Queue: 2 jobs
Job 1
Amino acid sequence: MNAPVADDWREALHESLKASGIDLVAYVPDAGHQRLIELAEADPAVAAVALTSEEEGIGLAAGAWLGGRRAVVLMQSSGVGNCVNAIASLSRACSLPLLLLVTMRGEWGEGNPWQVPMGQAVAPVLEALGVVVLRADAAADVLPVVEAAARMSFAGGPPVAVLIGQRVIGAKVFAR
Amino acid sequence: MSTALPERRAVVAALLAARGDLLVVSGLGGTTWDVAAAGDDPANAYLWGAMGLAVPTGLGLALAQPARRVLVVTGDGEMLMGLGSLATVARARPANLAIVVIDNERYGETGGQRTHTAAATDLAAVARGAGLAASETLRDLAAVTALRARIHGSDGPLFAVVKVAPGNGPMVLPPRDGALLQHRFRAALGVDQGD
Ligand SMILES: Cc1ncc(C[n+]2csc(CCOP(=O)(O)OP(=O)(O)O)c2C)c(N)n1
Ligand SMILES: [Mg+2]
């Protein structure tokens, strides 16, 4: 189980995404995004799209932008590895905006060593792709950082990823 | 089969005949050249890369433009790389989305290597299994003309495979600058207003 954390920043984040004109939420579930996914699924003003793989989210966001709609893609850090060619060959190749919210694993008290290699590769991989990487390492940072990221990317800027630190989410404990 | 399979350029031209306000996404390689050969249009979102992402791109567009019909035309190889997206479409159930796979049973663009559809895979059955009930395989132009009518007139999501003769035809190249393509597409839809 995840360590319990206050959910208020997720409620505020849901409202703030809508205030930024983002009403399409694509996701592959992660425990760290659970509440935000529930809020999106329950909100009739938001289209929540469950993906089978994170790279679909890059195509979905591209198509939405072509049609005049703003999307956000939620994933855990492993999912970044599934998006590499999509970000390079679609978002970057067409100078499309892109907003990724990535809940980090493999960086803070991680109990599953299989998460560590990709978790540690997330920032350098995204940077190699030309994605601007912003971090939120305290619950109070999440909202302003996501707002800044959305403004920057949808203004015609580069793809922006917000990495929500594992310390904010709470490290997953594998106990027996 | 006794009758010869249709030529892909004729199939795509029939799909896009009298297209009206249809929005089109084409998969990298062969189908992008086919769609360009049928006549360049700012409402064509040509992919020059991003293999496996034609269907997700079409889904995003369909969700953004629910009043417009959206057609994804892509190759069998491109579709095989993104099979999971069929389950995503089935779950999202966009009524205005149609997906047509131009199936030459080859990776035409890279030298004509046999794809999995030549060996074992029935893409229409895969789509049905993913949850797209309106899924079929077509083998002649008359059926394609009937499909064109359904794309404009019936609720989707629709999925069809069109088996076509081998041979990709000459390359017909649309603009290749991705930024230009996205801006002219958005301008044509009236959504490019200095966000
Ligand atoms: C991720 C990725 N892998 C491989 C390629 C090389 N590639 C380009 S087009 C293509 C074949 C496409 O086949 P299909 O979709 O059936 O189109 P056809 O040319 O047969 O119409 C391949 C493998 C690529 N562009 N991207
Ligand atoms: Mg092919």
Job 2
Amino acid sequence: MKELTCIVCPRGCRLQVDDNMNVTGNFCPRGKAYAISELTNPVRTITTSIRVSNRPHTLVSVKTTNPVPKDKIFDVMKEIDKLSVSAPVRIGQVVKTRVLGLESDIVITKNID
Amino acid sequence: MKQIDLVIIGSGAAGMAAAIEAKKNGINDLLILEKDERLGGILNQCIHNGFGLTEFKEELTGPEYLQRFVDQVIALGIPYKLNAQVTDLSKDKVVTYSSKEDGLVKLQAKAIIMATGCYERNAGAIMLPGDRPSGVITAGTAQRYLNINGLMVGKRVVILGSGDIGLIMARRLTLEGAKVLCVSEIMPYSNGLNRNIQQCLIDYDIPLYLSRTVSKVVGKDRLEKVVLSAVDENLQIIPNTEMEFECDTLILSVGLIPYVSLLNYIDCPISSTKGAVVNQYMETEIPGIFSCGNCLHVHDVVDFVSQEARLAGQSAALYLKNQINNNEDRIKIKAGNNISYVLPQFVLKNSVNDLTFKFRVRKPLKDQVVFIRSGETVLAKFVKSALIPSEMVMVNLSKDKLDEVKDEIVISSEDR
Ligand SMILES: Cc1cc2nc3c(=O)[nH]c(=O)nc-3n(C[C@H](O)[C@H](O)[C@H](O)COP(=O)(O)OP(=O)(O)OC[C@H]3O[C@@H](n4cnc5c(N)ncnc54)[C@H](O)[C@@H]3O)c2cc1C
Ligand code: SF4
């Protein structure tokens, strides 16, 4: 039996998972999917920011389009740190496809004119 | 003096949603005033995700969430002024603002929506003991430095207060290469969401010390050391329980306070939430002045800010069409057993809408029944498996039920 906290929504249900991967404590089905993913291949979305090369002292926020494996978080951060863009940029604009070969792109999350 | 139907002060999640709703309800002569250089308020610096699950059924970052509202403000042609700080307000609704572009301007408004947000408690407010070196900074300020200006605040960090902003900053600083030594919380429980404890602390092996607070800050110019001590049930420091942390930064995440100084100028009654006293229309005790969002009470989920602000926007439209009767009989709303506050604080009879009561509990509770009562009469009850102080709870009451009410309503939470 394992205890987890579901992080999918602010409700934060406490989940119990038995050895046969039966999930209880989840208020909705997303909790079940989360528990299984968390115990087999835990993943997280990364949000951070990168420099805007043609605007002094300006950062623009970015995120991974899909969550990446938890043990790759710092490697992905290193890749993101190498990136920069020049304004104008728009939400959803891709700055890096398939970061580290993962099924996840880095996209802009803020408009800068 | 220029006349205008509606002025909205502040363009955060609250101000934008209120303006959009007022416009959709037929108010065309309106203006948003924003002191910052952009629309969106605090969400501009909240680059993490977790916003919009209720509003848009998807998980957005703060800037993505706010952009959806900016797009609507622009599509609807709602006028706004940036770098325009409201400096004065009068009881008869004269709004004074100053901006580089316009200088000092006075507007005679018929209705006003306050959406000015909140500010953070700082070292002075919590009487932090010891030295006052540099390196002691509030979580929101650190967030702005890091996410907007790209300035790292320190390398070895202790965080005081386990509210969501503190937790989010623990992760953010860790990702940017800082060592977050611990989060210290004076209460025996965290004020943050469970999900943030998991994904911001446990994920990165950052310890959370409960019932512990800063007993000493040490450092001449720059912070050198923070001493944490355990506290007893009365939150008094227990001697000989010190833990020392060498660090260059102490981040304070010790509470947010509604920003109401403009309302204080006009003696608008303030409640225990430190925001205005309001009725079911989000209208303050001064008819025609409304309040919503973090300047009314501090919210943890922005989706509920948008919801509340829509109600304020719709109500301002009702008011401008003379459809709110402020002379109706009033019903007092009181916080009963286990409840720390309830909003609204009073209700006008013959309500246009059904009612939503928002409240927080005083301490974590399990297996509860929430009662809405008037005297002995139970108007409604709701079963809740778990309630925690950090989560705002909402319960609804049909307006027809108001006929059964004498002069007050009490909301309480009791063991099942
Ligand atoms: C650091 C932080 C992290 C958060 N994280 C989350 C999260 O993960 N998920 C979630 O759902 N919610 C989160 N929230 C909560 C949510 O984002 C806020 O509750 C919401 O954005 C507040 O909106 P608001 O419009 O009331 O206030 P604000 O966004 O603060 O807007 C107030 C605006 O009024 C302006 N203003 C103030 N005074 C004046 C004046 N005199 N004249 C002109 N303009 C003025 C300010 O410049 C500001 O733009 C977070 C909040 C904070 C503070
Ligand atoms: S189980 Fe469903 S309701 Fe509970 S936290 Fe997860 S997503 Fe939210």
